[in-house]
Specification:
With about 180 residues, the protein is an alpha/beta fold. About 30% of the residues lie in helices and about 20% in strands. α4 packs parallel to α5.
Length: about 180
């Protein structure tokens, strides 16, 4: 079976097309930014955010030949929500970095709340959140996210992909606005 990040990329690859506008909310070492940049092509745009300068520098280095990326050394709480198709969060800490610097529940919930509030201007927005409950802050963030997303407006579709037989394994939460069909008008 696929790892959580592989499943996330597979699902995203069925949504994002040439010309899309997407956000990597946690640049990290740049792999998600690279993946998204290739999906959106030359006519699309990737906005890559991180609070750590080393993460932004790592992402720029990996993506040095990509011309469709803008970088922001700031928290995902401050994502510009103009005309977005997808936002990807890959929470936790920077791999091979300082493990004491992690995403935190407050800024993550604020970022997601801001994005949900932008559905009027971004009706087709997809939010993908890869959660890592295997460390102390990750567990707090996980518990908060599960409680928060469980109580979201029923006009949103929230899906969780959790490996049930693995303790503290990474998992995926997706959020998008339910699409109207002939059967639910």
């Amino acid at each position: 079976m696929l790892k959580t990040t592989e499943l996330t990329h597979l699902l995203i690859s069925h949504i994002i097309k040439e010309g899309s506008r997407v956000v990597d909310a946690t640049a990290g070492n740049g792999y998600d930014t690279f993946f998204l940049s290739n999906l959106v092509g030359e006519t699309g745009k990737v906005f890559s955010y991180d609070i750590q300068e080393v993460a932004i520098n790592n992402t720029k280095l990996l993506n040095k030949n990509q011309t469709n990326i803008e970088y922001f050394l700031k928290s995902h709480e401050f994502i510009d929500q103009t005309n977005l198709d997808l936002v990807l969060f890959n929470l936790g800490f920077l791999p091979n970095g300082d493990k004491s610097i992690t995403t935190v529940k407050e800024s993550t919930i604020n970022a997601i709340s801001n994005l949900i509030n932008s559905y009027e201007q971004n009706p087709n927005l997809h939010i993908f959140i890869v959660v890592y409950p295997g460390h102390a802050n990750g567990q707090l963030e996980s518990d908060t996210l599960l409680a928060f997303t469980k109580n979201l407006d029923k006009r949103l579709l929230v899906t969780t992909y959790i490996p049930h037989n693995q303790n503290n394994a990474p998992y995926l939460i997706t959020i998008n606005k339910k699409q109207k069909t002939a059967s639910n008008n």
